[in-house]
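It would be a great kindness if you could assist me with a short task in structural biology. The matter concerns a single protein, recorded as an amino acid sequence and a row of backbone structure tokens. Could you please explain, in whatever detail you think fit, how the structure tokens follow from the sequence? Thank you for your consideration; the sequence and its tokens are set out here:
___
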Amino acid sequence: MKISKILIITVLFGFFTHQVNAQGKNSALFVNNSALIGDYVATNPGFETIVPYWYPLPNYSVKFRFDVYKTGTNTKLFSTPEKTFTNVRAGMYDQSPDFKRIGNTVILSVTPPDYFQGYIYAVDLSASGKSPWIKTFSQFKDIVTGILPDMNGNGVGELLVTTYKLNEVPDRETIDTSVYIYDGKTGVSLATPKTYEVQR
């Protein structure tokens, strides 16, 4: 019975992926949601299901949090602290979310459509009440994230963020990429962000 419940939840998250890809502006982007089920909470035996929750607000703002459930049940263990993001597309279908896991930290990154900001929300799920860390990125930038090995000796990996900006100039388009490296647990910057030309 436990296996069937896990399969049902996996299918539901697959539907979530399909819907975002089908209706979001960046519909070709693959939504990585494997981080949304795992063994995060120290006091809960077994796995948890992590549900992202957006609450749209007026004037292109949104509140975001994660709701944490026992996998295969509707038993909510806790919700993470909400954070408000401004100058963003508020609807789930209007953005391209991606999820990563580093240790017990789950990380949401959102690529913005057009004139809106992208953002990152990351939080340690080992217990309730942990404070999330957030990052925002200026408009007209696509966001791609990756996981790096531990670089500062604290035992957890780091988050690599690369942003891509398309620049329209006469007769052609150019692209710049900016590289950021953040501590995977605290969000502290581990290197000075630098921008590079990738297309001229």
